[in-house]
Amino acid sequence: MIDSDFIAGLPKAELHLHIEGSLEPELMFALAKRNGIAIPFASVEDVRAAYNFSRLQDFLDIYYAGADVLREARDFHDLAAAYFDRAAADGVVHAEIMFDPQTHTARGVAFETVITGLLSAIDEAKAKHGMSVQLILSFLRHLDEADAIATLDAARPWVDRIGAVGLDSSELGHPPEKFARVFAQARALGLKLVAHAGEEGPPEYVYQALDLLGVDRLDHGNRSLEDPLLVTRLARSGMTLTVCPLSNLKLCVVDDMTAHPIDRMLREGLRATVNSDDPAYFGGYIADNYRAIAAARGLGRDDLVTLARNSFLGSFLPDAAVTAHL
Ligand code: ADE
Ligand code: ZN
For 57-64, which contacts have Cβ atoms below 8 Å and span 24 or more sequence positions? Predict the structure, then answer.
């Protein structure tokens, strides 16, 4: 049995976190009040009771609705500041966080409002917690290529404060190939590339993320395990998988935590990491994810240390900083 303090005390990087998915119901209510917005819930308990999902889309519908309370730069600041405080308590010393600009620009909130709010919280987290943070601008894959290109164009003035682009939202029916050109543009800007693939989508989507997008890291990747040749390729190339156990359970990617493949991934030579995805919706932050997987799969300290080391190896930190964290 691993003690909880060991997990929280393990320095780690969080590589798969949607900042909009860290919106706790309490903050949702506070921002709704501050911005004079009506929300379709009577209480915080009501909100939490609605968080029952049987697939990714059930979650996404409620997640996009929740984001409507975010209107002003200070809202994005408060959202991110709350996450950094929580993550620091869990031993996160480096975070690479995704944000979904299109969720906000589609509602008339300017890209500038979103990013200036997030950047102010990032600067504070560095000063307050000594945490390093990179931003990952994530495109919504249910929208079209032109919308993604317009979003990348809107980001150009801040490109030196963005580390990577990503691809998220409804996976099935929206293969990576749809975004090959915008990813090529992002690469030309010097950005790293990540994409959700193999969460609900088939191994074919993972191949596309590798071959057509040229990703530097794979978000989720669970369904890669269905294809032994793909597993070999991922292992040999040292591709990092950002695995999210509590998310996998809540979105029914696994039926039960005791059936989670995290240790199988490690045994097969995959560089798996543990992350929280949308912690306010899935019942826990990063240390909760480590605890859940350790308890359900009987992981020992050595496996947990490997997972934490993998998080630095798979990060976009410069080599010297990675080495300093190992
Ligand atoms: N957006 C936020 N969380 C997501 C997930 N787990 N998969 C796809 N898109 C998301
Ligand atoms: Zn995700």
Answer: 57/170, 59/250, 59/251, 59/278, 59/281, 60/169, 60/170, 62/281, 63/18, 63/20, 63/21, 63/278, 63/281, 64/103
